[in-house]
Amino acid sequence: GDGPKLTVLDLKTGRSFPEHAVQLGGYVELLRASGHDVEQAIALYAPRSMTGSAKHIRWKEDTLETIDRAFRACCELYAVRTIIG
């Protein structure tokens, strides 16, 4: 689009899990379905205590498409499981 490119930022506490990428893929999918251009998605992991250090995982370009695809695959699996019980 002609508008600004967006960054999806999700703040998490504790350690990272693969499901976080799928969740960010969902946010990307929703924004794109609403006509927004998403440039990147970032999961920022804050420590549970003030003594730890923060880290981040960033998806952009090819990897951004992968998390979007993972979200859509989970939606399809959910739909099939609903049908078959």
Q: In percent terms, what proportion of residues is strand?
A: 25-35%
Q: Provide the low-confidence segments as ranges.
A: none
Residue-averaged pLDDT, rounded?
90
Assembly form of the protein: single chain
Largest beta sheet: strand ordering = 1-2-3
Tally of alpha and pi helices = 2
Features:
flat; 85 residues; 46% helix; alpha+beta; 3-stranded mixed sheet; 2 helices
Written overview of the protein:
The protein has 85 residues and is α+β, with helices and mostly antiparallel strands. It is 46% helix and 29% strand. Strands 1-2-3 form a 3-stranded mixed β-sheet, covered by helices on one side. The longest helix is centred in the C-terminal third of the chain and has 23 residues. The protein is flat and about 45 Å long. The termini are far apart. The relative contact order is 0.21. The mean pLDDT is 90.
Summary of the model, kept short:
The chain is an alpha+beta fold. The chain has helices at residues 18-33, 62-84, and strands spanning 5-13, 37-46, 55-60. Helix 1 crosses helix 2.
SSE map:
Layout lengths: L4 E9 L4 H16 L3 E10 L8 E6 L1 H23 L1
Parallel strand pairs: 1-2
Antiparallel strand pairs: 2-3
Helix pairs in contact: 1-2
